[in-house]
Design goal:
The longest helix is centred in the last third of the chain and has 17 residues. Helices cover 33% and strands 20% of the residues. The chain is of the alpha/beta class. The two termini are 36 Å apart.
């Protein structure tokens, strides 16, 4: 596998890689202290089988903290945030920070990140070539059609030397920001869930790891190019998160879910279900609110250029 780290700073910026109506703090405390009080019921939205397996494991352990966690599985990246915004979910866990920021900006919402989950590389896959260097003139490359993941896919292609992107495009470039395309590759934008499924049709695809793993692909074993081989270098904008409504960010029950997630048991489950493709994204020194604010400031500064 050949990798290039040109403009890696765009991917590794240090400043920056899912609601029922009960707060339930007192009942949570009673439950955790051995009371017979009813557990606090929460709904969490996730995407795909990998997330489902991890969160079902978290839900089983959350019972010990007095939280009855209902894991609801979605098939795309659009509905979990809409369901969270309209109150159908208490929290969701499927997206990275940049995706949440883009949703809040475009939909005029104020969903908040409350805890990091995992981090993934993004990779290119192909059944037709062994390297992106081998792409023929006019080759078709499928990428996700949402702004942040599509932008990351384009930056991957730039790192690989396939295209050049305007330096002022920031972390979410679009095909319109391509300034050089020596092989005249055709960029096809698809729903992120469909990208790995187009592997037999396109010359190459650049896919999100969760959908790739669901399709039986591992970025480090099956990818022909990854945007980083060291997940510790992926910027915080691409760290996946747990999100909730702004006025629920300090709910005790939601804090307990975050605490239950951010444990060695979850880390082991992540590695198990992704075959090592994902790694934990949390640490003891996280300040996720500050990270989100820094991302917001970076995006605003980029728009002024």
């Amino acid at each position: 596998m050949k990798t290039s780290f040109k403009k890696l700073g765009l991917l590794t910026a240090a400043a920056f890689a899912l609601v029922a109506c009960s707060n339930g703090a007192s009942s949570d405390d009673q439950a955790s202290s051995g009371s017979t009080a009813e557990p606090t019921k929460l709904k969490v939205g996730v995407v795909g089988d990998v997330e489902r397996e991890v969160w079902e494991d978290v839900a089983e352990r959350a019972k010990d903290k007095g939280v009855d966690l209902d894991v609801q599985v979605f098939t795309d990246y659009v509905q979990p945030n809409k369901a969270l915004a309209d109150g159908s979910l208490d929290l969701n866990a499927f997206q990275h920070m940049a995706f949440l920021h883009d949703f809040n900006s475009s939909e005029q919402q104020d969903l908040q990140p409350v805890g990091y989950t995992y981090i993934s590389a993004m990779a290119a896959y192909s059944d037709k070539v062994e390297s992106l260097d081998d792409l023929k003139d006019g080759a078709e490359i499928a990428i996700p059609n949402d702004a942040t993941n599509g932008g990351r896919a384009l930056l991957l292609l730039e790192l690989a030397g396939v295209i050049e992107i305007d330096d002022n495009a920031g972390i979410s470039p679009t095909p319109n920001d391509i300034t050089e395309n020596p092989k005249n590759v055709k960029i096809t934008e698809l729903d992120a869930a469909q990208v790995p499924r187009s592997l037999g049709d396109a010359d190459a695809v650049v896919a999100n790891t969760n959908y790739a793993v669901d399709a039986g692909l591992n970025p480090f074993k099956d990818g022909i190019f990854v945007d980083t081989e060291d997940l510790a270098k992926v910027g915080t904008q691409y760290k996946c998160i747990i999100a909730t409504q702004k006025d629920r960010a300090n709910d005790e029950a939601i804090k307990k879910v975050v605490e239950t997630y951010q444990t060695p048991e979850t880390e082991a489950k992540i590695k198990e279900v992704t075959d090592g493709a994902d790694q934990k994204a949390w640490s003891d020194n996280d300040n996720i609110s500050a990270d989100y604010k820094a991302l917001d400031e970076q995006v605003k500064a980029a728009k002024k250029k």
